[in-house]
């Protein structure tokens, strides 16, 4: 356990690393150049010196591109992933393979991209099939169908600005 956090890399990106247990720590320490400092030999020691350890990991990641850090650590069983921003998330292979982003046509903005359902349920699959509503898009349905308002009542609401 420890370190865990998000660290800067040489290409200006960030990489998230989580050493969940002693096995992860040993694999990470080996990649760091065989860290043998006694302060980091136990979980308690790593937690007690987490700031120094985070600085050590940050210095190591800062000398490499984010994708290289991610690949190297994952290859050795250490959970690591390049931190994504909105732009790079759209190109992430894992998100693409899971259909995480869905393109939808919006009546005002044209093609928009939204997050799809996170869960994959076999009997009741979630679907994102329409873009975010515009202000008042469902007024007619709500007022007429759900609330049972007649034309006069809807017109009165509209006249006083309640539907704008």
SSE layout:
Elements: E1 4-8, E2 14-18, H1 22-31, H2 43-48, H3 50-61, H4 66-75, E3 80-82, H5 86-89, H6 93-97, E4 101-106, E5 110-115, H7 139-146, H8 151-159
Antiparallel strand pairs: 1-2, 2-3, 4-5
The overall pLDDT average reads 91
Structural class, please? alpha+beta
Show unreliable segments: none
CATH topology of the largest domain: formyl-coa transferase, domain 3
Q: Identify the CATH homologous superfamily of the largest domain.
A: formyl-coa transferase, domain 3
Number of DSSP strand runs: 5
**What is the gyration radius calculated from CA atoms?**
26 Å
Gross CATH architecture of the largest domain: 2-Layer Sandwich
Number of helices: 8
Helix coverage percent of residues? 25-40%
Distance between the termini: 55 Å
What percent strand? 15-25%
Q: State the shape.
A: elongated
The domain tally reads 3
Question: Largest sheet, if any?
Answer: 3 strands, antiparallel
What is the CATH class name of the largest domain?
Answer: Alpha Beta
Question: How would you describe this structure in keywords?
Answer:
164 residues; alpha+beta; formyl-coa transferase, domain 3; 3 domains; 3-stranded antiparallel sheet; two-stranded antiparallel ribbon; 5 strands
Describe this structure in words.
The chain is of the alpha+beta class and 164 residues long. The protein has three domains: 4-83, formyl-coa transferase, domain 3 (2-Layer Sandwich), CATH 3.30.1540.10; 85-132, no CATH class; 134-164, no CATH class. 39% of the residues lie in helices and 15% in strands. The longest helix is centred in the middle third of the chain and has 12 residues, at 50-61. The model has no long low-confidence stretch (mean pLDDT 91).
């Amino acid at each position: 356990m420890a370190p865990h956090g998000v660290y800067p890399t040489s290409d200006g990106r960030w990489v998230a690393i989580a050493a969940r247990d002693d096995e992860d720590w040993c694999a990470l320490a080996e990649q760091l150049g065989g860290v043998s400092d006694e302060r980091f030999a136990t979980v308690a020691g790593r937690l007690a010196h987490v700031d120094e350890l985070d600085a050590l990991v940050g210095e190591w990641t800062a000398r490499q591109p984010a994708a290289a850090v991610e690949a190297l650590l994952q290859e050795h069983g250490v959970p690591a992933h390049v931190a994504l921003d909105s732009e790079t998330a759209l190109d992430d292979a894992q998100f693409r393979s899971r259909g995480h982003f869905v393109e939808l046509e919006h009546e005002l903005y044209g093609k928009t991209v939204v997050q799809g359902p996170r869960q994959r349920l076999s009997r009741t699959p979630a679907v994102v099939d329409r873009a975010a509503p515009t202000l008042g898009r469902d007024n007619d349905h709500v007022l007429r169908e759900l609330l049972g308002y007649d034309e006069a009542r809807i017109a009165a609401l509209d006249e006083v600005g309640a539907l704008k």
